[in-house]
Q: What sequence folds into this?
């Protein structure tokens, strides 16, 4: 693997409306630094992919965006959401996570029925009316393209679903909260190709109403579904540009080497 | 020697050891049940013990054992739950939590006679609770708490971390995630542990000799006033349990049928504990299915 100058980077200006932006984000695990100076602006209602080799810090960075790294790592810098720095200690993290949802690498439905998986957090957030809950249940399952497959089994255990269905249920569970932003951490890496393509299709549709940030180590996936792509290497954001440019006209040597499969 | 041969020899040795253990267990169980079951009768289960003449039963002892068990669980379950939840969900790994875990382990290896004498000095004498079910229940809590805490902590810990992250990512607080997602998922394990520990409480004798006492005063089973001295529910009365009764009948009893009483009581004790164990499995499975909605 070649040595690259990690302090050089090419970051494009996003002229669209922003969903989220980060300024000088540093992440430390104990003494070792995992993210250096991340400055990224995420456009609204677009899919932004974070790519990079293992250990590049893409998942670590993603988890900062809704404070899932609290208690695990130290995160410095600013993360602005609607003009508020959500990385400040005074931020109500529970409120943040209602606006910025997350789907994880492995499907993690609750050991409850399908409908309870969706409605549980809603009830907790204060939604009481049965009619509202049912409406939201159907709406979010449809949004995640799962409704047709499970509409007759809503009272059955979510654990009986296949891996791909479980993952779409997790997506449905997230969007049921009506978040602004959806963070996805390699959501398809544990799934078979058919489930993967269903997830991708789902995400494409969801990007009309949600700003999506997705970590993936699958370059084809990034090029298929994302509008913008950020390439991270060893904790540094090396290049951030429209997906087309990243894959066809990379500005940095490291990016070019990575997207053409020379390392990672 | 080739790998296959070594494997065969190892398997043979392991099977032999397992068979020896199982045979031993069957022998003990068989002996107790074989000797005791023929002497169990409705009369034996429903009449009070006799000090000097034959024909005494174990009604009061059996009830005392069950009542003591219930009281002990009422005292120890909330504490065990609190400690288990703290250790598994809230505590960070540092010297303090290490200290707690070590203390819990030390507590669990205390000989029950020591616990009993400690309970005698502190609860019976100092706090003036006297020989009472309450003293016994608190002593048994000491005895039971370490295992219960351990069990609850482990059951919670075994719930995958992904479940916590799922709860957190939906904006649920740590407490809500713990009580509404982690705890239900861990409930079958907790329940199994609880019922297994109930079996231990039920069979415990040494810890009770100096705390709950060795006498079973006649009580009135129709008196539901918990504060009345002769009520069966009064927790301040001395109460000889079944296990203590077995010990006592065998050591200092003058009844002519002491042998019969002790073997029949032992059989009852074992049968109840077996029922607990089977019940634990059944209930644990049932509960898990209900919670996870698997039909």
A:
């Amino acid at each position: 693997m070649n040595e690259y100058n990690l302090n050089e980077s090419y970051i494009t200006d996003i002229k669209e409306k922003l969903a989220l932006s980060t300024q000088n984000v540093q992440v430390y695990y104990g003494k070792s630094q995992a993210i250096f100076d991340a400055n990224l602006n995420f456009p609204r209602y677009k899919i932004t992919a974070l790519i990079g080799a293992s250990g590049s810090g893409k998942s670590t960075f993603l988890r900062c965006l809704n404070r899932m790294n609290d208690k695990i790592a130290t995160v410095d810098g600013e993360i602005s959401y609607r003009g508020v720095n959500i990385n400040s200690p005074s931020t109500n993290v529970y409120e943040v996570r209602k606006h910025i949802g997350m789907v994880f690498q492995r499907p993690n439905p609750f050991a409850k029925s399908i409908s309870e998986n969706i409605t549980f957090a809603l009830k907790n957030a204060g939604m009481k009316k049965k009619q509202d809950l049912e409406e939201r249940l159907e709406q979010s399952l449809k949004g995640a393209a799962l409704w047709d497959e499970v509409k007759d089994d809503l009272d059955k255990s979510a654990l009986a679903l296949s891996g791909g269905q479980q993952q779409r249920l997790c997506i449905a569970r997230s969007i049921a909260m009506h978040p602004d932003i959806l963070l996805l951490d390699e959501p398809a890496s544990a799934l078979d190709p058919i489930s993967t393509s269903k997830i991708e299709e789902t995400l494409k549709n969801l990007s009309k109403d949600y700003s999506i940030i997705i970590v993936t180590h699958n370059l084809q996936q990034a090029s298929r579904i994302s509008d913008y792509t950020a390439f991270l290497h060893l904790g540094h954001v090396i290049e951030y540009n429209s997906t087309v440019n990243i894959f066809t006209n990379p500005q940095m040597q490291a990016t070019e080497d990575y997207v053409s499969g020379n390392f990672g | 020697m080739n790998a296959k041969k070594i494997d065969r020899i190892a398997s043979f040795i392991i099977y032999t050891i397992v068979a020896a253990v199982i045979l031993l267990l069957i022998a003990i169980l068989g002996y107790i049940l074989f000797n005791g079951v023929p002497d169990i009768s409705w009369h034996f289960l429903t009449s009070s013990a006799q000090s000097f003449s034959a024909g005494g039963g174990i009604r009061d002892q059996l009830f005392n054992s069950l009542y003591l068990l219930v009281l002990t669980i009422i005292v120890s379950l909330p504490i065990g739950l609190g400690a288990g939840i703290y250790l598994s969900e809230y505590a960070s790994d540092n010297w303090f939590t290490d200290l707690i875990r070590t203390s819990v382990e030390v507590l669990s290896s205390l000989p029950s006679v020591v616990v009993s004498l400690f309970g005698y000095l502190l609860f019976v004498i100092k706090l003036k609770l006297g020989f009472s079910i309450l003293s016994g229940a608190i002593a048994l809590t000491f005895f039971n708490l370490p295992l219960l805490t351990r069990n609850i902590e482990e059951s919670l810990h075994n719930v995958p971390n992904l479940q916590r992250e799922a709860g957190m990512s939906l904006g649920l607080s740590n407490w809500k995630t713990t009580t509404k997602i982690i705890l239900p998922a861990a409930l079958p394990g907790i329940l199994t542990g609880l019922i297994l520990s109930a079996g231990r409480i039920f069979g415990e004798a040494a810890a009770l000799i100096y705390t709950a006492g060795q006498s079973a005063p006649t009580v009135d089973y129709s008196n539901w006033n918990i504060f009345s001295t002769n009520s069966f529910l009064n927790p301040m009365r001395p109460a000889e349990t079944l296990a203590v009764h077995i010990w006592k009948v065998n050591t200092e009893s003058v009844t002519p049928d002491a042998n019969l009483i002790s073997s029949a009581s032992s059989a009852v004790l074992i049968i109840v504990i077996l029922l607990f164990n089977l019940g634990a499995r059944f209930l644990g499975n049932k509960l898990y299915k209900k919670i996870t909605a698997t039909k």
Remarks:
- Chain B has two domains: 1-39, 42-292.
